[in-house]
Design goal:
Elements (H helix, E strand, L loop, with lengths): L1 E4 L9 E4 L3 E5 L5 E6 L30 E2 L2 E2 L4 E4 L5 E3 L10 E3 L15 E6 L4 E5 L8 H8 L6 E4 L5 E2 L14 E10 L2 E6 L2
Antiparallel strand pairs: 1-2, 3-11, 4-10, 5-6, 7-8, 7-9, 9-10, 11-15, 12-13, 12-14, 14-15
């Protein structure tokens, strides 16, 4: 359980508890949280978090706002490394190489960074994670899994809002990237998903 402080919290009354949305299941040797720095473009001049929006052209051009929950970028969001080796939210564009999955909340109500720019990015091929909603885009996923049948591989990609998603051609609504990030192990419900990273 991660303790989260509401913005401007001054008393214990404002403390809330939030479950982690990304939980390593098999990552003792397969996966690891890579220490990274948040790209400076994700900070406003006053030091607050600036969520990437559809009109951004740097460090990545975007066609959609990054997904947030209560103003916070969610754990499990696909991150990419920019030319300065800083982490930015994936834009779902074809050819952009995913780096890994964000390990904590950024900005908004559940911000776990404050003025710190150090984040963790989970990565490692074959590492397995349990995700809780809304850490991925569930559009079309249940139908795709049912149509694929037992033993078939369902791949997830970086969506335009940064979350894991099906390709648009697979019934998804956002991902256009040609680089897979993960494969579905089990969709337990619309609130829980087990994935295996392929990056």
């Amino acid at each position: 359980m991660q303790t989260i402080y509401s913005p401007g919290a001054a008393t214990n009354i404002s403390i809330t508890a939030q479950k982690r949305l990304i939980r390593p299941a098999y990552a003792q040797t397969q996966g690891f949280p890579y220490a990274a720095y948040l790209d400076p473009s994700l900070r406003n001049s006053d030091g607050s978090i600036r969520v990437p929006v559809s009109t951004d052209t740097t460090p990545l051009s975007r066609s959609a706002n990054a997904f947030t929950y209560d103003g916070s970028i969610v754990p499990g969001t696909v991150m990419v490394k920019n030319q300065n080796s800083n982490a930015v939210v994936a834009n779902g564009a074809a050819g952009v190489q995913p780096w890994g999955l964000l390990g904590q909340w950024i900005g908004g109500t559940f911000d776990g960074l404050g003025q710190n720019n150090q984040i963790s990015v989970w990565m490692g091929p074959d590492s397995v994670y349990d995700l809780l909603a809304p850490a991925w885009n569930d559009a079309g996923l249940a139908a795709k899994i049912a149509a694929a049948g037992a033993g078939s591989q369902v791949l997830l990609y970086a969506g335009t809002d940064g979350r894991l998603s099906l390709l648009t051609t697979d019934g998804g609504t956002a991902a256009t990237s040609s680089v897979p990030v993960a494969r579905v192990i089990e969709r337990k419900s619309n609130a829980a998903l087990t994935i295996q990273l392929v990056i």
